[in-house]
Write a structure and sequence with these properties.
The chain is an alpha/beta fold. Helix content is about 10%, strand content about 20%. The strands form 9 sheets. The chain has a 6-stranded mixed beta sheet with strand order 3-4-5-7-9-11, with no helix packed on it. β13 (about 165-170) and β14 form a beta hairpin. The longest helix is centred in the C-terminal third of the chain and has 12 residues, at about 365-380. The termini are far apart.
Length: about 425
Amino acid sequence: MKKKLMSILTATAITLSAVPFTASAETTEIPDSTAVSIDNSTIKAYGEIDENIAWTLDSNGTLTLSGTGFADPDHYFSTPFCDLADEVTAVVINDGITTLEPYLFKDFSNLKTVSLPDGLLAIYREVFENCVNLTEINIPDSVIYIGAGAFENTTWLKNKQSENPLVIGGNVVIDGKGCKGDVVIPDGITAVGSGAFEWCTEITSVKLPDSLTFIGEYAFYHCELIETLDMPKNVSVIKEYAFSECGSLKSIDIPDGVKYIYENTFEGCYLLEKVTLPESLLFIGENAFRDCESLKEMGIPSKAEICRYAVGFSGSDNEMLTDFVIKGYKGTFAETYAEENGFKFVAIDEKTDEIKGDANCDNNVNMADAVLIMQSLANPDKYGVNGTDETHITAQGEKNGDMDGNGLTNADALEIQKILLKLNDTPEQIS
């Protein structure tokens, strides 16, 4: 039995031959093994990327991809339609395709317009690189990832850069290399694309929105003037080299919910002094904090696996940082990492006995506890749970200092003072 391919849309439901063909004036019938025939009045060539995605090129130069899932050739030199690149002036990606894999349309120098579907999730690296005549493309709000160089050397990107140095597509920051001074990424943005601010040496600060969930690889690589960075609470993914070589960065607080810190993420942050890691963290990649020479200690969450040279090492010879301290729970990866590499290990008791009033967790209750409570409330950036001062209050300290069970307030500091002055009855925990 023979069937006819009546339109490009029907290509999603059938298997096409992987071999392009040049049409004659009449309909060409294909043997039963392919179950396809093509109306050559419009279709000039056709084929498939894999068993799930088919492509057609019509006589007007429109290349259409139809199907479901990932458009994933082995390499852009082996893309089944690469030999037809010079004939392609428009690309249409139909509904159902979720990902454009690397290099898919790289060097299509005559490509002018691209239509992308709602539901597309990712545009990987260099997909449209060197499409020098590309001037029109829509980026759906569904896109959550854009790889490095995806639009490099396109007229579209150059036009966007001339309008605003902060180039946004959908809900993703694509490029900010022309930005200077203080950069504010607007609310609603969910991702910073790979390499978006790479080598942007004139940025002095970046304000990230609470809507942000994803920071791509090399996103802020070598942004050497950024000193502080407030990481939004909804960020869950920070990819490799994202903040590598940010030589002025002094502190970073990784929000709860982040599970993986990939390799080399903070490598070469030479002035980094304080890192706070969340209990949700499961993995610290190789060289993640390598060459962070100002970092003297790191507290490791209980479930976090640590790869080699992740922290405490510097230089090409893998030199250990002098007197570096690993803090963590006994019997965890933290203790193993410290023992295997010769670092001092300071155990954190998983179950700390609560001593009412002991805000500084020194197993005593005195005026210093009342002072720390007031400091943490008056200046939380310095003395709060995530404060920068080494004597800042801890989560256990906040719990200890909450005398009435209503949360930490100045009333708790006053209560401690009254007890010390024997103006109130003394709780059992205070002797």
